[in-house]
Automatic annotation (TrEMBL):
It comes from the Bacteria. InterPro entries: LysR_HTH_N (IPR000847), LysR_subst-bd (IPR005119), WH-like_DNA-bd_sf (IPR036388), WH_DNA-bd_sf (IPR036390). Keywords: DNA-binding, Transcription, Transcription regulation. GO terms for molecular function: DNA-binding transcription factor activity; transcription cis-regulatory region binding. Transmembrane segments: none annotated. Belongs to the LysR transcriptional regulatory family. Residues 281-315 are annotated as: Disordered. Residues 8-65 form the HTH lysR-type domain. This is LysR family transcriptional regulator.
Length: 315
């Protein structure tokens, strides 16, 4: 669409309408918050731009010429359309700033997100938040596809096509049921032994499995799994039943370890630490509620650990 160079800008049209309505260039200038000389110069510039005289000036005030009255009528339609556009844009901004779609990995969704969302709602009561949970691979896909405004993933690196920032660090632990042989074992389980043992694992695409595979890479990676389950709750139930060792976030098993239903199995020399990241589309910056939520997740110092299940996260 080509815009004619003879079309005045919106401010000039609003000034013309004010002069026509008030009958005075001085009163129009005062209403719009500009000086009378500036308003007069703008009218003259508009007349030169259009190529016709718009106002007849006299000691009694200013009134539109015949051409000026016609231009004012057209200008009134343009200004009304601009006001409607502005109102529509405001509504869009309010709708955008009033909702937030979050996708999070299970660990973040269960152990961090509730506290963050409570803090966010306290600061912005009108925000409507939807939270979806999935493994880290699916979360990344949802953020890249525009299905989520902000994502939270587990794993050693930021997924391709996304920008991200570390919001906390977590640690995986190997746990077994109280009746499992490893629960009564006196000698430590080695990394090589863990790699050779069929484990009850999360499904492919989970951050937990990615971190474990990377940690055991020097020992050939993980053995074919005994079972693959899609939730932390299912993993814990399998471990308690004696199905086999599982690897989960230390946050997820705090109560079970305290009660003795599960037993932690040390694996000396095996690094099972992992960062938890907030992610968003590459080349963009979080805005509105996404930016506000991100500010609540930022660690107060490098290497911040996640709070325990019965601790209060420092916002």
């Amino acid at each position: 669409m080509v815009v004619s160079h003879r079309v005045p800008d919106l401010g000039a049209l609003e000034l013309l309408l004010a002069v026509v309505r008030l009958g005075s260039l001085g009163r129009a200038a005062a209403e719009l918050g500009v000086t009378q000389p500036a308003a007069s110069a703008r009218i003259r510039s508009m007349e030169r731009q259009i190529g016709v005289a718009l106002l007849e000036r006299s000691p009694r005030g200013s009134r539109p010429t015949e051409a000026g009255a016609l231009v004012a009528e057209w200008a009134r339609q343009v200004v009304r359309a601009a006001e409607a556009l502005d109102a529509g844009l405001d509504a869009l901004r309010e709708r955008r700033d009033g909702r937030l779609r979050v996708a999070a990995s299970l660990t973040v969704a269960e152990y961090l997100m509730p506290g963050w969302l409570v803090a966010l709602k306290g600061a912005h009561p009108g925000i409507a938040v939807t939270l979806g949970t999935a493994n880290s691979t699916v979360v990344a896909e949802q953020v890249r596809g525009g299905e989520a405004d902000l994502g939270f993933v587990e794993g050693p690196r930021t997924p391709p096509g996304l920008n991200g920032t570390v919001v906390a660090t977590d640690r995986l632990v190997v746990v077994v049921g109280a009746r499992h042989a490893w629960a009564r074992r006196r000698s430590a389980v080695t990394a090589a032994e863990l790699a050779a043992t069929p484990l009850v694992l999360r499904e492919k695409g989970s951050g937990t499995l990615e971190v474990l595979d990377r940690a055991l890479a020097a020992h050939g990676g993980t053995a074919p799994p005994l079972l693959q389950l899609a939730s932390t709750t299912a993993l814990k139930a399998a471990a308690e039943s004696g199905a086999g060792p599982v690897v989960v976030s230390e946050l997820a098993v705090a109560d079970e370890l305290a009660s003795g239903r599960l037993v932690a199995v040390p694996v000396p020399g095996l690094d099972l630490g992992r960062p938890l990241r907030a992610v968003w589309p590459a080349g963009q910056r979080p805005t509105g509620p996404a930016r506000d939520l991100l500010s609540l997740t930022r660690p107060s110092r490098p290497g911040r650990r996640l709070p325990g299940p019965h601790e209060t996260a420092q916002m």
